[in-house]
């Protein structure tokens, strides 16, 4: 049975990936530090869905078996804990690693830069070293659409220049791509970076627009609409994202014409939606109008994202969830989760 480490297992994407891989009978070790960047109760509840009780999940450096799934274990660790990560790799001898753990958020990186250096740079280096020391067959890691910065050419394509990030978060993700390339070149570690484009869906992050808007509209509060609504995003439903990760995981890169075993994919819907249309979908799903507070664009934000997904589509990927359906599924989950 193939053994896979999934970091960020209590996070939005990591939780959904673990849930899928468990059903496909891989042996999964989930890792997360369960930090308080957003409500930890949501993170513990995700783990509970995976059969890990809060009392056991809360203990650092202790592996916890799932009560529901024989092929899932969870361990609470910080990526930047060099010794603990090294010991974990040496003990488990993972076949593959999916590194989704990171300090997330563009705006938060402006106020708390050191958190990003520790988690996204030091932590990622520890993952790379673990892969090198134990000869992991494939490392797949999360990058971000934010690396494109204020690129004017659309859709954003992987070969585009991404040397001008406009947030520290984006800079750390670009750094991850460079670090992965170096380790692929030096140590022949197959690495795949995925530039995620605005992921949304059930169990999503409370700091993301869909969560914030849904909560505010239900409560009758105003919503902050940045750039006066003149924004567009390549909103991508979580099920499509997981499908893309699985495809990428199943086909590790190989050396071709003296190139290193390294690659990057955009993973998005492939067509942007305006923020105004996105809000309209939420209003329709809730059957309630939003009170909009129009504001200027925020530092670190970009006005538009749009993914060129042709490379991943060539491997069988397709983004098939329309935004209306995806928003409806989130709203249904939100009401059930908060017992509204």
UniProtKB/TrEMBL annotation:
<dbReference type="Pfam" id="PF01370">
    <property type="entry name" value="Epimerase"/>
</dbReference>
<feature type="domain" description="NAD-dependent epimerase/dehydratase">
    <location>
        <begin position="4"/>
        <end position="268"/>
    </location>
</feature>
<dbReference type="InterPro" id="IPR036291">
    <property type="entry name" value="NAD(P)-bd_dom_sf"/>
</dbReference>
<keyword id="KW-0520">NAD</keyword>
<dbReference type="InterPro" id="IPR001509">
    <property type="entry name" value="Epimerase_deHydtase"/>
</dbReference>
<protein>
    <submittedName>
        <fullName>UDP-D-glucuronic acid 4-epimerase</fullName>
    </submittedName>
</protein>
């Amino acid at each position: 049975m193939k053994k896979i480490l999934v970091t960020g297992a209590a996070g939005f994407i990591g939780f959904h990936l673990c849930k899928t891989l468990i059903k496909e009978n891989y042996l999964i070790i989930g890792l997360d530090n369960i930090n308080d960047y957003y409500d930890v109760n949501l993170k513990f509840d995700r783990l509970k869905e995976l059969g890990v009780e809060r009392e056991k999940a809360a203990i650092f450096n202790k592996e916890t078996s799932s009560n529901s799934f024989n092929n899932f274990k969870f361990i609470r660790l910080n990526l930047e804990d060099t010794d603990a990560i090294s010991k974990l790799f040496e003990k488990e001898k993972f076949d593959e690693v999916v590194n989704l753990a990171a300090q997330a958020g563009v705006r938060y990186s402006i106020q708390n830069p050191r958190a990003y250096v520790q988690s996204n740079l030091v932590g990622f280096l520890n993952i790379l070293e673990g892969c090198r020391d134990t000869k992991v067959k494939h490392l797949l890691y999360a990058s971000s659409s934010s690396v494109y910065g204020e690129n004017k050419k659309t859709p954003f394509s992987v070969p585009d220049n991404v040397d001008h990030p406009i947030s520290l978060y984006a800079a750390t993700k670009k750094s991850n791509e460079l670090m992965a390339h170096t380790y692929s070149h030096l140590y022949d570690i197959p690495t795949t970076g995925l530039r995620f484009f605005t992921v949304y869906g059930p169990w999503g992050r409370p700091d993301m627009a869909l969560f914030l808007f849904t909560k505010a509209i239900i409560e009758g509060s105003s919503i902050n609409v940045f750039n006066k609504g003149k924004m567009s995003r390549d909103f991508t439903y979580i099920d499509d994202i997981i499908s893309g990760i699985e495809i990428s995981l199943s086909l590790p890169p190989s050396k071709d014409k003296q190139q290193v075993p390294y690659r990057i994919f955009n993973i998005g819907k492939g067509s942007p939606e305006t923020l105004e249309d996105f809000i309209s979908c939420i209003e329709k799903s809730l059957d309630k109008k939003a009170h909009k507070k129009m504001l200027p664009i925020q530092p670190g934000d970009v006005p538009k994202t749009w993914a060129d997904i042709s490379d991943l589509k060539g491997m069988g990927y397709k983004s098939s969830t329309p935004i209306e359906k995806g928003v409806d599924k989130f709203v249904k989950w939100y009401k059930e989760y908060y017992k509204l």
